[in-house]
Amino acid sequence: MTVGVCYFPEHWPRERWERDVEQMAEAGFSYVRMAEFSWSRIEPEPGEIELSWLEEAVSLIGDHGMEAVLCTPTATPPKWLVDKEPGILQEEPDGTTRQYGSRRHYCFNSPEYREQTRRIVSVMAERFADNPHVAGWQTDNEYGCHETIRCWCDDCAAAFREWLSDAYGDVESLNEAWGTTFWSQHLRSFDEVDPPRHTAAEHHPSRLLDYYRFSAESAVDYNAIHTELLREANDDWFVAHNFMGDFDSCDVYRFADDLDLITWDSYPTGFAQDRRPGAASADELRAGDPDQVGMNHDLYRGAKQQPFWVMEQQPGDVNWPPYAPQPGEGAMRLWAHHAVAHGADEVLYFRWRRCREGQEQYHAGLRKQDGSPDRGYRDADRTATELAELDLDPVDADVAVLHDYDNLWATSIQPHAPDWEYWTHMRQYYAALRARSVQADVVHPDWDLSGYDAIVAPALHLVDEELAGALESRVEDGAELLLTVRSGAKDTSNKLPDVPAPGPLADLVGATVDQHESVPEQLDRRVSYDGETYGYRTFAEWLAPDGATAVGSHVGGVGDGRAAVTEHEFGAGHVTYCGVWPESGLADAVVADMLERADVPHSERLPTGVRATQRDGYTWVTNFTSDPVAVTVPDDARWLVGGETVGAFDAAVYEGAAADLSLDQR
Ligand code: GAL
């Protein structure tokens, strides 16, 4: 387990590099990532390649016992290239061009850009093919950042028509799948389909869903240009990409087969502010939400079922969220431990030094702009020493949480409530598992689920017979399954089937959805479950049991007394259907009952912000709050890092099971 850093040698005078690299080595770093935005330095004039500076930086890194991770520089095509090929630029739905001047301004479907990509990637791959200090590559940088997965240009229009023709074969099949009789949308040929550009009212939901799928796959196709050329040059290299947190449009599962390593970029205090409804708490402003960050760790681990890397770890205050508070003392160390507990094998901090120019001057580095150590450096240095002691097996989870971008897209296309949000709904159940110290793999529903004792499937919206059959056989064999609102409501074309929800899941659930409603705060939002009354939010269903038992009911409102939660014995397992978006107390009660039935070891319910996470026989206690916690562990547990008192924003590690600890927050 090691720590590394992202470095931009091109931002600093050559005389400084040696000192920088020495200091990285002194801190015990292993990998240094470079070059992701350096095209204009690599090719200052068309066809004039200058790579000797990067070779020098790589040699220095190698001389100091570290390895380089290089990036293809395609996230920032230089000005001369944009002027030469203006067609590479992306377009908004209203036809506005996304101009040169920031980054990610190219279209994945531009034939000219694909050609230029082949050229620059080949040049770099060939130059470094025999370099012993390059361990692997990152393709491009954060596909889709700044909402750039989707583009509405003419190249995308042509590619979309081709994609539809491959998917449907003939246009009548498309008309049938989408349902184009509505609002006179019948199509006579694929040529009549455009990208969903600016319109008076909303677009057809089936067309939008296919456009989202097509756009995600365009990025995957584009990425394959990089992976092929890099592997051709040296197939010992790993090829990775750096994905983002709670990110809607870029589907990591579609990339998984073509990448050797999944990595992501973790900025906890930014995410707590800019991609979650509601205000961040004081502690979250200092350290983020461990379940928000943790769920992304588990997603990027689950996507390939293997250890992942954090390619960019927040190093201190950052420039892009609404506010940029200083992280809590020690938070940069806490985040790295938390990542390792969730299955990361490597954590690289972004960036080495605060930048003196350009858009990110208000973003910390591990070192200040004068080269002196900043708060993050001290944390990273300590973390590198602590992690160097550990050699860990991958995470082994008993529980799967099913996650699917198609469900995210379909429910966000028709949210049916202003505060419907797929990640947040999913996280309500995920947080209940995490509060009970249970490791969960976040996986796609098509994944082989045979290794899991319990499966949680939040808003499993688009369901076909095949998926229903796979879940049925898993439950028949003894798994516990928890389904939630909106499950089985639509087919995979984003259309209602001719039976009520949960559609093909009805036999398994032993109930159907009689009514659904979305509910603002002014209306009654209460249910009873196991003798207690709980609140819920946003979305509710009235269930009609048919074989299942109603174990929870609506209290008050027009649905008073109707079933809200059902339980159904099916073969050797059970299915719980929770027909409301539960408050955390209800999510905990339902999840804890499921864990009991599944015989999955779990702890007492931990307080918000404190988590215990088990990997390879070790447990990390991570405290994302400003209050110390006292931890009681079994007598034979051995502390490796820290001890019984885990301070504010602190992490401790013991050898022993997470399920066995108890906590007292002071
Ligand atoms: C990431 C990006 C980096 C840098 C960083 C700032 O999203 O990959 O290049 O912009 O954010 O926090």
Automatic annotation (TrEMBL):
EC identifiers of the protein: 3.2.1.23
Residue span, Glycoside hydrolase family 42 N-terminal domain: 6-389
Beta-galactosidase trimerisation domain sequence ranges: 397-600
InterPro entries (UniProt xref): Beta_galactosidase_C, Beta_galactosidase_Trimer, Class_I_gatase-like, GH, Glyco_hydro_42, Glyco_hydro_42_N, Glyco_hydro_b
Ranges for domain Beta-galactosidase C-terminal: 609-655
Keyword list, A-Z: Glycosidase, Hydrolase, Metal-binding, Zinc
Catalytic reactions of this protein: Hydrolysis of terminal non-reducing beta-D-galactose residues in beta-D-galactosides
Bias-annotated ranges (Basic and acidic residues): 275-289
Region described as Disordered: spans on this chain: 275-295
Family label: Belongs to the glycosyl hydrolase 42 family.
Record's protein name: beta-galactosidase
